[in-house]
Design a protein that fits this description.
This protein is mainly β. Helix content is 8%, strand content 45%. It has one domain: Sandwich (Lipoxygenase-1), CATH 2.60.60. The strands form 2 sheets. Strands 1, 3, 4, 5, 7 and 10 form a 6-stranded mixed sheet that branches. The longest helix has 12 residues.
C-alpha cells in the first residue's frame, strides 16, 4: 500500500488527478464541481484486480485528464462498490468516459460492471460496461443514462 501511496503522490505531481474516498460535499464556488465516482466490480470468479485503474471523463464543456481510482482501501475487488470524490472544472453534461486498466500486478484481469458518476447533488450518469479487461487497455464507454 505504501508503494501505491508513493505512486499516487508522484503522478499527482506530474499532472494526473488522484481520487479521494472522502464523502460527497457541496460544490466549491467558481465553476469547480465535485464529482462522486462509483465503480462496481462484477461478482464473478476472478473479477477483482490489483491493477491500476484510471478514468478520463468527457463532457459538453471539456474533459479531465486521467484520474487514478485508488485510495487506502483494497480497491476493485470482486463484487465491491468503490466510491471516489474528485473536484474539477465543470464538464457540463457528461457524454462518455475512458477507462484504463493497466493489467499490472497479481490478479491483473478485471471485470467492470458499471460506473455511476454524480455531479454535486444531481442524479448520476450511468456508464455500463459489463465486460473484462484482460490486457493493458483503454475502453471508451458512452453515457447509458442519456
Amino acid at each position: 500500500m505504501k508503494l501505491r501511496t508513493a505512486f499516487a503522490a508522484l503522478i499527482a505531481t506530474v499532472g494526473l488527478v488522484v481520487a479521494s474516498a472522502a464523502p460527497a460535499q457541496a460544490d466549491p464556488p467558481g465553476g469547480i464541481k465535485t464529482y462522486q465516482i462509483n465503480v462496481k466490480t462484477g461478482d464473478l470468479d476472478g473479477a477483482g484486480t490489483d491493477s491500476w485503474v484510471q478514468i478520463r471523463m468527457h463532457g459538453a464543456l471539456g474533459s479531465t485528464g486521467w484520474i487514478v481510482l485508488d485510495d487506502e482501501d483494497d480497491n476493485h475487488e470482486r463484487g465491491r462498490l468503490d466510491r471516489y470524490r474528485v473536484t474539477h472544472a465543470d464538464l457540463g453534461e457528461l457524454r462518455s468516459i475512458d477507462v484504463w486498466c493497466d493489467h499490472s500486478g497479481r490478479n491483473a484481469d478485471w471485470y467492470l460492471d458499471w460506473i455511476l458518476i454524480s455531479k454535486g447533488s444531481t442524479d448520476g450518469n450511468l456508464f455500463s460496461h459489463g465486460g473484462w479487461f484482460t490486457r493493458n487497455q483503454v475502453v471508451g464507454v458512452e453515457n447509458s443514462t442519456r
